[in-house]
Design goal:
mainly alpha
Length: 305
């Protein structure tokens, strides 16, 4: 649920988008280098240009980085009077509401960065003619995707670092201390961000114009957050809605993140009575493959009527 302005594609709202001119020299070099070398060279150049364009749009940066922090602050402060939840009969093992909502905000941040921002960004670039111009150059779609994926990875890491720092120092949330939990977080994060990036590319094929991009993408992202255990406890939902949400990756990503940031006894509150990390990995990997296949099938430099 992102409230950023409708021009929040990463630099797409500005006519000074540097793709066509900024890639002129690398494109010329790519014609004189082996195909694999040219693809990688253009991809690396595209990452730099994407990051420059992204950080020049202050509204996008502000809302992308601030939104998960703002939501965590709202939930943590609004339910502060509830006190600690999930305490054992002897009063130990409880956590604050801010700590409880942190893993959901981490998962939602990956969804917003990978799916929402990327889907809207690519759809607008296609509608405004940037992709058509790139399609007439030596740039391969692989190079284009390398640029987008690199930008998503960098911005996601920065967003995550700010969110965890805010949770620890402003809301006094105790972060995991065991190296094994951070190792688990690492593979969950990498699997999650790759999956969300590919799904963002695939979803970008749906909007028919730049004006409809936000209208198509935002409701999907908003719905998934509310039914996947980000803002509401997942087991509070009706059984049929839990089963429906389990078809989508955000539910599994949020569950995996809860296994990292919440005490072990909170696993009893999950749908299956445990963290089920094998199912988490299997479902995320399945959506990763689906996103890759859909991206390869649906991506076009120019939308076909």
């Amino acid at each position: 649920m992102n409230t950023q302005p409708t021009n929040a594609g990463h630099g797409t709202g500005s006519p000074a988008r540097p793709h066509a001119s900024g890639l002129h020299e690398p494109l010329a070099d790519a014609r004189r280098t082996p195909r694999a070398g040219g693809i990688l060279r253009l991809g690396l150049a595209a990452i730099t240009l994407e990051l420059r364009a992204y950080f020049r749009t202050s509204d996008t940066v502000f809302f992308t980085f601030l939104f998960p922090i703002l939501m965590l602050c709202i939930f943590g402060v609004a339910f502060e009077s509830v006190g600690e939840i999930g305490a054992a009969p002897d009063g130990t093992g409880g956590i604050t509401m801010a700590a409880y909502y942190l893993p959901g905000m981490v998962a939602a941040g990956l969804l917003l960065t990978g799916v929402q921002n990327l889907a809207i960004d690519i759809a607008r670039e296609r509608s405004e003619g940037w992709l058509r111009r790139l399609g007439g150059t030596a740039m391969s779609p692989v190079s284009y995707f390398i640029g987008k994926a690199g930008m998503i990875l960098v911005t996601s890491v920065v967003q995550l670092a700010l969110l965890l720092a805010f949770a620890k120092f402003a809301l006094r949330v105790d972060l995991p201390a065991e190296p094994a939990l951070w190792l688990r977080f690492s593979w969950l994060y990498l699997l999650g961000i790759v999956t969300m990036t590919l799904l963002g590319i695939a979803l970008s094929a749906l909007p028919r114009s730049s004006r409809s991009a936000s209208a198509v993408v935002l409701p999907v992202v908003l719905l998934l957050q509310f039914i996947s255990g980000v803002y509401l406890q997942f087991t509070m939902l009706p059984g049929w809605l839990q089963d429906f949400a389990s078809l989508f990756p955000l539910k599994w990503l949020a569950q995996g993140m809860r296994s990292v940031f919440l005490p072990e006894h909170f696993a009893l509150a999950e749908q299956g009575g445990g963290w089920d990390l094998g199912l988490v990995a299997l479902n995320l990997a399945g959506w990763l493959i689906a996103g890759l296949v859909l991206s390869l099938i649906t991506f076009k430099w120019v939308r076909r009527s």
